[in-house]
## 1
Amino acid sequence: MFIEDLYRAIQRGPKGSEVKEALITWEDPKGNFRTFEIKK
């Protein structure tokens, strides 16, 4: 799973829900974290 996939899922929301807005602010990495992962 990629960040973009997660963003699309957030925009859709769960079945029967209404998502009014979902925003992402992209920034250059600052090196604060050694690793990043999304687990299912």
## 2
Amino acid sequence: MRLISLGIALLGAVGSGVTVTGQAGTAGTHPLVGTWRLVSLQRAAPAQPLAPVDNPVGILIHDATGHAIEVVTQAGRPASLNPAEQLQTYEASWGRYTVEASGATATYLIAGDLNPGRKDRRVLRTFQRRDTELVLVENGPDQRPAVRTTWQRIPELEALPAYQEALVGFWRWTGSGMINARGANVRPASRDPSVIVYTPTGHMAVLYLPPPGRQRFASAVPTIDEARAALQGSVSYFGTYIVQPKSRTLFHYQLGAVNPAAVGGSFMRNFDTAGAQVTLVFPPTMLNGEQVRNTLTLERLSGLAEMWPDFRR
């Protein structure tokens, strides 16, 4: 299997407000807005031409207010990969982006990344949109193309259920913990800036990062111990989701995950939305002899109007 050691340092700093400028895309929306699946990946070693990477899969999501999340990995990764190999074949980051007035260059500022050394980095990419195809090119230090990704836009659901609308959007993690029967948080959690995203195409992506303070890798390729420490407590995968409105449950189906053994699996969560907040509740488990439920709270960064500006009920 060919390992990915990409220079894709996508995505950016936490915030809100309209930051996207530039030319209008098809249907009157910005050309980057939407949910995109990876169809081609090329990368180049220093002073070498671009070469294809085998079996690329991934997801790229932009909203109209400048939030983005990207996952790039490979299909068929063996479950036996060690932590360092997992990180070399799976990249995930999120943050904010802006587009120059020319409409051909985007700047991404990383808010969160599985690789702790890429947090707060700023990355410049040129892009071309041709109908439902998006091509992004990132140059290396020598200003030669280092990474070229090609994405296919996934169409929004033709009949998006009304009960699903409230969940669509970028959601930033604000807190979580193990809640017992008395409502006490017996194990509160802390995380670097983290998000989960639900799209109007029926796709989702999540990047929950460990607590602040992770150490940067000593070199471009982490050791097994460095990678294990960086991944400890992280959750990252992408796939599809289904909303069950009567039982207030969500089902996540994993198409790609940092742990290759998790691909093809699914998760169930209870949920509750209240204005700009969503609560996700995991199934019960036992902790120190009592039943608890991991409960996450998230605040809205964007919603259906920002994920699908042309939507009309």
